[in-house]
Structure formats: structure tokens, C-alpha cells
């Protein structure tokens, strides 16, 4: 089974999306998905939603013109598309953030969780708890009208990334938007923190009252590979992006993050068929049609932090990120 490395501009054309709580927005319907969002069938880089606690899956037309593809992440199908002028370079993997006090060698505290597919090949993870703290800082400052936090200490290497917000004891999806184009982490996390919290078209903008019940996940996408067989990927390890032509001959894309198939209990065929439906394919799905799919697999480093952990780390590990305002009060989940 042939496979090739996906690098540079090829990766910037990836369609992003999620898992689906609302009806899929098909080509031609209006989309938002954050600043610069336009209709799903407009021919710029594809984005989408991911649905009920899933990864990502969307319909969109792909074109080489766009440098950045925004993507509505976990929680709801959709075909929102946008393009802007962020980086399209290759992802870096060298500069690693030192693990702060109280963290394990993998960069996680005992109370934090990493997602399926986090890390690869035994190397030290790039994603860190400080990134989640920074996302909480950015959102907190915005909601309370404080000056934005200063430049954080973690690496500023470029990565494709997603910021996901969930809420409550049952961790319901509250917003998820990201990009398959590599962005410098300082600006990328700052941008997509607010975009996912305030601009996800599936949800109203977040409010101050919701902060104490939030969970933040940062996902950094790595190891993109084009494969020759649509079954050449591993459930729970790889995220997948498919490209196919619908009944009208239009090119469509859809994607799921690595955790989706495992969380849903799907096998390869069920995952592929779900992605096809989320991408807007309505005809009967045959094995011959599945063989026409172009599939790219990738991995993700993911870390999740709840509001309680955020407050604890800011109080006990001095994760201030240059913020001069008082710490928000700790509250239990409602």
C-alpha cells in the first residue's frame, strides 16, 4: 500500500471539521466559522464541524488559493469555509517546552488528560498544560475586558491546531474550531481560542457565567501522510481526511480527529461512511466508491484541562502569563 508524506502547501489545503450535532451544511449554504468565513461551496480551503463529542467532519470545496483553512471542530456537521493570510509552511517539531513543577515527564499533571494518538514514536510531546492555561487566560481576559495576556513561554513553532471547548459534568461540546495550515502557536492559539469560543456558528458566544464549567483541549496535528488504500489507518491512532467527488462531480472533503472513531465505537468502514455522509454524499455507498476516495491520515497531540485545574495551576504554579488582574474565583460545576 503506497503512502507519501504530506508536507508544505499540500497540507494547507486540508479540510477541517468535526463530528455532528446539527444538520450538515452542504455546498451553497451560507457558513461562518469565524472571521473571514464564507459559503461552503465557495472554492476556498475547506472547513467543517465535528458533531456530538466527535472529531471533525465537514463538506467543503478545496482550492489551492487559500493559505489557511479554518475548521469548526468537535460537535456538529457543517461546511463553513474561510481563508485568510496565515502561515502555510511545514510544521516544526524541535523546540519543546520544559515541563513545569508538578508535571510528569510527558508534560501532563496527574489531573490532566491526553487524547488518543497523543505523541508519536515515544518522543516528548510538544503540547503542554501551559497551552491550555494560555487559552483560558485569553478567554478570561476577553470576557472580563482585561488586556490580553502577554507572550507565553511555550514554543512558538508552527503547527496545524484545534482549540476545543466542552462544558459541564457531561462535557458537552461548546465550541471547536481549528486550522490544517501550520500557524505559530502563540498567535494561533490566541486566535482560535476566541474563534472557537465566540464564532462557532453552532453555538452562541460564550459568557462569563460559563467559565467555571469549561474544559479546554488543545490539539496539535502532525505526521500527515497520503495513503493509497482507504483502510490504511488505525482506529484510535490516526485522524483521517478524505477527498471525493459527489453525485454532481464536485470535489468534497471531510475529516475526523483521531479520537472520533474510537469514542464512537466505529470500525474503518463505519468511519469512512460517516465521513462521506458528513461531506454531503447522498447516494448509496458501495465498496467500489470507497476505493475512489483519496485519504490522508495524520496524528494528533492532544491535552485537556478543566477550569479547576487551570485555577490550581495559576495559583500554585504561577501560570500568570503576564496577566495583572486578580485570579477568577474558583467555582464548582453547576
UniProtKB/TrEMBL annotation:
Biased composition annotated in UniProt, kind: Low complexity: 82-92, 105-115
Region of interest: Disordered: 74-120
Domain AMMECR1 intervals: 120-314
Signal peptide: none
Transmembrane segments: none
Name of the featured protein: Nuclear protein AMMECR1 isoform X1
Amino acid at each position: 500500500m503506497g503512502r507519501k508524506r504530506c508536507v508544505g502547501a499540500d497540507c494547507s489545503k486540508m479540510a477541517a471539521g468535526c463530528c455532528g450535532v446539527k444538520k450538515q451544511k452542504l455546498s451553497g449554504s451560507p457558513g461562518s466559522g469565524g472571521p473571514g468565513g464564507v459559503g461552503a461551496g465557495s472554492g476556498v480551503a475547506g472547513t467543517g464541524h465535528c458533531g456530538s463529542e466527535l472529531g471533525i467532519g465537514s463538506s467543503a470545496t478545496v482550492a489551492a488559493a487559500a493559505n489557511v483553512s479554518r475548521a469548526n471542530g468537535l460537535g456538529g456537521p457543517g461546511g463553513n469555509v474561510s481563508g485568510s493570510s496565515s502561515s502555510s509552511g511545514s510544521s516544526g517539531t524541535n523546540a519543546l517546552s520544559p515541563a513545569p513543577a508538578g508535571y510528569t515527564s510527558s508534560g501532563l499533571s496527574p489531573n490532566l488528560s491526553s487524547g488518543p494518538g497523543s505523541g508519536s514514536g515515544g518522543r516528548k510531546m510538544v503540547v503542554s498544560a501551559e497551552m491550555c492555561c494560555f487559552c483560558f487566560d485569553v478567554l478570561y481576559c476577553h470576557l472580563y475586558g482585561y488586556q490580553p495576556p502577554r507572550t507565553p513561554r511555550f514554543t512558538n513553532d508552527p503547527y496545524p491546531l484545534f482549540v476545543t471547548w466542552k462544558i459541564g459534568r457531561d462535557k458537552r461540546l461548546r465550541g471547536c474550531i481549528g486550522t490544517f495550515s501550520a500557524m505559530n502557536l502563540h498567535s494561533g492559539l490566541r486566535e482560535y481560542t476566541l474563534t472557537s469560543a465566540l464564532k462557532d456558528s453552532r453555538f452562541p458566544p460564550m459568557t462569563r457565567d460559563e467559565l467555571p464549567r469549561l474544559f479546554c483541549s488543545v490539539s496539535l496535528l502532525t505526521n500527515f501522510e497520503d495513503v493509497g488504500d482507504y483502510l490504511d489507518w488505525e482506529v484510535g491512532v490516526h485522524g483521517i481526511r478524505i477527498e471525493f467527488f459527489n453525485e454532481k462531480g464536485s470535489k468534497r472533503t471531510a475529516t475526523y480527529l483521531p479520537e472520533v472513531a474510537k469514542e464512537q465505537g466505529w470500525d474503518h468502514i463505519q468511519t469512512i461512511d460517516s465521513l462521506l455522509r458528513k461531506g454531503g454524499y447522498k447516494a448509496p455507498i458501495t465498496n467500489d466508491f470507497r476505493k475512489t476516495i483519496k485519504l490522508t491520515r495524520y496524528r494528533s497531540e492532544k491535552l485537556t484541562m478543566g477550569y479547576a485545574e487551570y485555577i490550581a495551576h495559576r495559583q500554585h504554579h504561577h501560570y500568570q502569563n503576564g496577566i495583572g488582574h486578580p485570579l477568577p474565583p474558583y467555582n464548582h460545576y453547576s
